[in-house]
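REQUEST ID: PR-0412
SUBMITTED BY: lab tech R.K.
PRIORITY: routine
TASK: structure prediction, single protein chain
INPUT:
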Amino acid sequence: MKNLLTTPKNLDSDALEFARSLNRSSNIIYIQVRANEGALPNECFSNVARMVEMHGGEQILGWQIWEWPGVFAEAEAHAVWQSPNYELYDVTPKVESKIAFIPDPTVNFTGVRINNVRHAIADNEDVRDFIAAGDHKHRIFGAIANGTRLDQWQIIIGGRLDAATGLLPHLFKDRGRRSRRCPCNSGLSYHDCHRPEIKRTLEMAATAGQ
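STATUS: complete
OUTPUT:
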């Protein structure tokens, strides 16, 4: 299913109150995307460090705010560049022309991926399960370097979590109706088809690696 995460259009939305709670001393602001030549997608920390080395200024750490309208909001640890003239720019390439950002000096990037913070907007079990699956994936795999050989249990639980996060978004629009069809096209209701499998996956992930 297509990822519908986007920059929030309304920063006064109650849905973004969770983002403000990340740093009550700062406000959420819009920042223009001005990708630097040679900057890499999803490498904001190194991109900003390179800008500081080349042009001066400062790295500002905080959270980029995303929203899946009506479903959930998400905060992603992010770095932007503050120019010597104190102008803020997002120098990391992305489709968005501007981002929503809240500065937070407590963000500390040490080379290990920082988990995104997600908040359910919809009062929907499927959304809560999706967020839980993402949190489990980060706990189990977040500190593992790319290319690392995984143990068999990691391969199994990783595959189950990937399947869960791939299936659950197809259910968001149904707002938790018990009679909705399972997205796997089995013809059965989700409740009688993949729901027990999703619940089992989350139970397995909760104790995996302990």
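NOTES: The first helix runs from residue 17 to 20.
REVIEWED BY: pending
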